[in-house]
Each structure stands twice: as structure tokens, then as C-alpha cells.
Amino acid sequence: MSQKISILLLIVLLFVSCTTPSSEVNIYSGRHYQADEKLFREFTQQTGIKVNLIKADTDQLINRIKMEGSGSPADLLITADAGRLIAAREAGLLQPMESALIDSIVPKTYRDPLGYWTGLTKRARVIVYHQSRINPDDITSYEDLAHERWKGRILVRSSQNHYNQTLMASIIAALGSDKAETWASAVVNNMARSPRGNDRDQVKAIVANEGDIAIVNTYYLGLLLHSPNEAERQVAHEVGIIFPNQDGRGTHINISGIGLTAHSKNKKNAIRLVEFLLGDYAQGILSENNHEYPISMGVEWPEFLKTWGMFIEDTIALDRLSPHLQESMFVFNRAGWQ
Ligand code: FE
User: Fold this and answer.
1) Is the same domain home to 158 and 192?
2) Ligand 1 centroid, distance to 220 Cα (angstroms)
3) N or C end of the chain, less CB within 10 A?
4) From the CA of 217, how far away is ligand 1's center (Å)?
5) Is the pTM of this model over 0.70?
6) Does residue 18 have a pLDDT over 50?
């Protein structure tokens, strides 16, 4: 082969390799569920697009995307909290997803108004109580937890936890920071012990008689009720669930959600995956396996979630919690919520 031809061939090969879109998508995920991975495998089978997954703590992933800058291989960031997606957008790490499908099936409340992120599933932050020690009619709102009759009886995890921070941001949005602080101080006063453990540990502590009432995300109760461990199932059967603020603003809803990274190199594939995860099939798998509420409109709840009944959701658009997220940390601090 002459030198000219081989150089030409090289140029053609280089051109092809530069213009052929790589058929993959890279996910950084703060969620750790088998159902997610099952869906990623099925997406690959259906589309031929390879899914590369890195799982870690959400704040670590956000820092990693920051440090990697424009060279970041991440296309999508998945978190288990709206507050973290808001923070990622504010740090300039995301870009809008242009998708008529996302706009049409995800309620506005649960996605960024410009498409920087969208919810994937919903979870309610509810009150769980011991069925023989508590009359559920005595607690109908988050505000009721401030009543002195609950002194020494409330179990809740630390203020470092994102679920509590986003809940607090919603309380600040509803009541203002002064009243939110008064509420938080009263809850601290009513705590059965200083905050420790995760949501499931709070439910277990109720049954171990360390306290009577806990603040917990719904799917943790679902996971306990369906646990392969008999003792965990037993724990879940001893407690009841209250959806707070049904006579007012509704129960606080957080999301697991997904954002397209600012420097995504596989944008089309990424949006295609998001659309797949919001489709009826994937929504069904996520809610059936993880006991989360489907976020896409028109998707039926699995039978198990129906047993807890319908409830009124706090309808504040989650992106509007943005100015209150920082403030939530200050409020927790001033209230002495560790
Ligand atoms: Fe969780």
C-alpha cells in the first residue's frame, strides 16, 4: 500500500471514530438499589446503549463531578434527594434536558422548571408510631410533634441527613424561619435520645421501647415489611403510619431524581435513559421493588402502596425550596438539633 493511501485510510478511520457516537451512557448514582441495575440492563438490551454505573455517596459524586470539570465522564447524576439536585444545579454541574416527554409526564412540582433535573420516584416523609402506645388522632401534623406531651418520645435522625434538611426547608417555606426554629427546638426537647442511626433504626427503636414516634421515609417501612428477615417484618407490623398535614399543606414529599451533567458527552443516550426510567414499565418496577411512589402521571400504584391509602401531598414545587436549604442548616444549629 502506498504511503498516500495508508495516510488517507488513517484519516478516514480517525474521522469515523470521531463522528460515530459512542453507544454508552455514564451514570453517577447515589442510589443503591438492585431494581435500578435491573432497569439499566434492560435498557441496554432494548437499545444497545451500554450503561456504566458508579455508585457512591451523593456528596462525594457531586464533588467528583466538580473536580473532573469539563473532562467528567458522567452524563447523569442520580440522587435520593431533591436538595442535592438543586445544589448540583446551583454549582453549575447540570444542563437542561430537552424532552417533551419528561415535560408531559412528570408533574411540574417534581422537576426543575428549566429541565436541569427531574424526579424519578416520590417518597413521603411521614410519622410512624407505636400502635398500642399512641393514639394516631393525637398527631395530625409535623407541628404537633412540638407539643410537650411528646417529651422524651420522639425518634429522628441527625440534621446532617439530607431528608431532614429538605423537610426543614419545606417547613421554613411554609412557616418562615422563626417559627421553624421554634418548632425544631421543641422537637429537640421532645427527643427520646440524641439523633443517631438511619430511618430504619428509628422504627426499630420504637419497637425496642426507646421512644414512641419517629420521622421516616415511607419506603423504609415498605422495605421492613417485605424484609427477608422475620424480626424486621415483626418490627414493621407493630407500628402505624400517619401522613401529616392532611388538613393543611399536605405531607412533605421528597424525590429520587436525575440530572443531565453540564459536560455530558452522551446527551442523547442520557435523555433516552431518563425517558425509559419515567416510562410505565420502569416506574412500575421501581415502586414495586423499592416501595417508592411512581412520579409519572397515570402510572398505577402497586397494591402494597394502596394499602396505606391516598393522601394529600405538599404541592410546593421542590425547586422553590432552593433558598431555604442553606437556611435549614442554620435553623437546625440554632435549635440544637445534632
Ligand atoms: Fe433512603
Assistant:
1) yes
2) 7
3) N
4) 7
5) yes
6) no
